[in-house]
Amino acid sequence: MKKITLKKSSDKITMFHLLKKGLYRMLLVSVMYVFALVSTVQAQSFTVNVDFGSDNTPSEGWNNITLETMNIQALLNSNGAATDISLSVYDAFNGVNNSGSTGTEGIPTLASSDSFFGNTAVFESASEPTGGVKFSGLDPDKSYNLVILSSRAGATDNRETKFDIIGASSDVLTVNSSSNTTTVSGSYSPDANGVLTIDVSAGPNNDNSYKFYYLNTIQLSYELATALTDVEEEQPEFDIYPNPVKDYMNVKATELSEMKIFDVSGNVVHHETIEEGNNKINIDLKAGLYFIQMFVSDKAVYSNKFIVE
Q1: How many angstroms from the chain centroid is the CA of residue 126?
Q2: What single string gives the DSSP state of each residue in 207-276?
Q3: What average pLDDT score do residues 195-207 get?
């Protein structure tokens, strides 16, 4: 009978090499897959631009805060898209000044040339030694870059303006607003509630007899890690007309959504479900300026303003 000898060592080597090659290929595929996932995510920069003063809106991508509009829900970013960020004037200023900078780089003239102002000594029967604004709806885990313009063209005395920034930590920025064309800036995180407060007052070097101080614009910038698939995802579209409105408005929507209408104080005055397609909405509101926002899955996706006659 013929004896058969098994080559165990060769078989072990063969199996080892096959196993090693298999593991290598699996590892390579896994690494490639992880890399593919990582490569679909990118950081995008967004900016919320706010103009304080008169009702002359600079351009698309800017939000206008006036003495009549002290609270804006769902601020627009520079791309014209609604955000989850709100802004309110919680400490009133004295009035509006229309003699600001006309040569500040990166800021439209209609935004830089007007401002809110305040004063410590009585001016025109009023004294407002401090003014203040609050950003809400911020992410406590993120850092936001603030760029602030404070300007009064034609002034030659020292009208230093002080900005007390209060969030997760505190900071102070100062600038002489007289004939100023430059901005002051810093990077800050909001408090645990997602709020960033900016208190405005006359600085310690302000030698104007009234202690005037100014707030022209604030630009709030931040980054979001966004999946490319999300960037390319088709967003719902809305068409709202006529404007001004009398008894009704037409709302054309490409997706089921919730509509909220706010008055200039930030109060919800109308709330209604909007069906996909054409909707005729009866409007029973007092004459004036209003803000409309559309929500899909509780997220603000559209914001605009309209007038009721």
Answers
A1: 32
A2: --TT--EEE-EEEEEEEEEEEHHHHHSPPP-EEEE-SSBSSEEEEEESS-EEEEEE-TTS-EEEEEEE-S
A3: 98
